């Protein structure tokens, strides 16, 4: 197993464009998380999936953001009508979901720059 | 809401020396988990060490150990025999035990540099 992967690693877009990021979790992990990390800050929780069900969304996730996890495998995070304030590193993490061993493993992130 | 505070933005240590990174947190829960994650430059975040709040014994992982003071809500990371590869951002994180969502709440991080 190669761990959590994310694609693309870098994305530069113009304000107003739509972008989509992909996350492939570790294969047997049923929980998948999206976080956003801005420069000089720690990651902030955005949303979380248990298998294919999106169970929680942060208030940080405006209606321009949508996430999916079809069939409980990979996940996509789409940002519509991007704004300069959306520039950040978007991190994906996955975990087994067992309460006592629910360690989250992170992917390398997608760095978004909105011009 | 739970909060995690890392008040030192940067620290520096001489190679082979010991350094301690500080973290405090605030919660009304009695049981929870605490973590230290390492984020090397342009590389992905990896787990360094975890501590269960119900355990009195401090966690250790090779050169990494924690000083967990539950009453003071303090969770510091000690790195012994520092190596050049330890240079990174270090994040302290908190997670609830109860509830379905095991989201992590992170501090702002501390940048550790290691001097050769």
Query: What sort of overall outline of chain A do the alpha carbons produce when their principal axes are compared?
Result: globular
Structural class of chain A: mainly beta
Share of residues in strands of chain B: over 45%
- The percentage helix of chain A is under 10%
Number of strands of chain A: 11
Radius of gyration of chain B: 14 Å
Q: Provide a count of the helices of chain A.
A: 0
User: For the CA atoms, what is the radius of gyration of chain A?
Assistant: 13 Å
Output the number of helix runs of chain B: 0
End-to-end separation of chain A = 36 Å
Which term fits the overall shape of chain B?
globular
Largest sheet of chain B: 6 strands, mixed
Biggest sheet layout of chain A: 7 strands, mixed
Strand content of chain A: over 45%
Poorly predicted runs of chain B: none
Order of helices and strands of chain A: EEEEEEEEEEE
Give the assembly state of these chains: heterodimer
Return the string of H and E elements of chain B: EEEEEEEEEEEE
**Quick one: how many beta strands of chain B?**
12
Q: How would you characterize this protein structure?
A:
The complex is a heterodimer of chains A (115) and B (116). With 115 residues, chain A is mainly beta. Helix content of chain A is 0%, strand content 49%. Chain A has no helices and eleven strands. In chain A, strands 2, 4, 5, 6, 9, 10 and 11 form a seven-stranded mixed beta sheet that branches. The relative contact order of chain A is 0.33. The mean pLDDT of chain A is 92. Chain B is an all-beta fold. Chain B contains no helices and twelve strands. Chain B has strands at 3-5, 10-14, 19-21, 24-26, 32-39, 46-52, 60-61, 64-69, 74-79, 88-96, 105-106, 110-115. In chain B, strands 2, 5, 6, 10, 11 and 12 form a six-stranded mixed beta sheet that branches. In chain B, strands 3-9-8-7 form a four-stranded antiparallel beta sheet, with no helix packed on it. Chain B has a two-stranded antiparallel ribbon with strand order 1-4. The termini of chain B are far apart. The model of chain B has no long low-confidence stretch (mean pLDDT 93). Chain A binds chain B through residues 3-4, 31, 33, 35, 40-45, 48, 50, 55-56, 91, 93, 95, 97, 99, 102-109, and chain B through 4, 6, 37, 43-47, 50, 91, 93, 95, 97, 100-109.
């Amino acid at each position: 197993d190669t761990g959590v992967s994310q694609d693309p690693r870098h994305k530069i877009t113009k304000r107003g464009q739509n972008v989509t990021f992909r996350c492939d979790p570790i294969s047997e992990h049923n929980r998948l998380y999206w976080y956003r990390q801005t420069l000089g800050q720690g990651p902030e929780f955005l949303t979380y999936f248990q298998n294919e069900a999106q169970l929680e969304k942060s208030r940080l996730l405006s209606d321009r953001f949508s996430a999916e996890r079809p069939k409980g495998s990979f996940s996509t995070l789409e940002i519509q009508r991007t704004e300069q304030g959306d520039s950040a590193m978007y991190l994906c993490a996955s975990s087994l979901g067992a309460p006592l061993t629910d360690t989250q493993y992170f992917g390398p992130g997608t760095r978004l720059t909105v011009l | 809401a739970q909060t995690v505070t890392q008040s030192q933005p940067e620290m520096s240590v001489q190679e082979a020396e010991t350094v301690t990174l500080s973290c405090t947190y605030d919660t009304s829960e009695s049981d929870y988990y605490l973590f230290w994650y390492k984020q090397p430059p342009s590389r992905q975040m990896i787990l360094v060490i975890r501590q269960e709040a119900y355990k009195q014994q401090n966690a250790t992982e090779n050169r990494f150990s924690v000083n967990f003071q539950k009453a003071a809500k303090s969770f510091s990371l000690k790195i012994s025999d520092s190596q050049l590869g330890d240079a990174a951002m270090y994040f302290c994180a908190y997670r609830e035990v109860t509830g379905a969502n095991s989201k992590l709440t992170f501090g702002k991080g501390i940048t550790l540099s290691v001097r050769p």
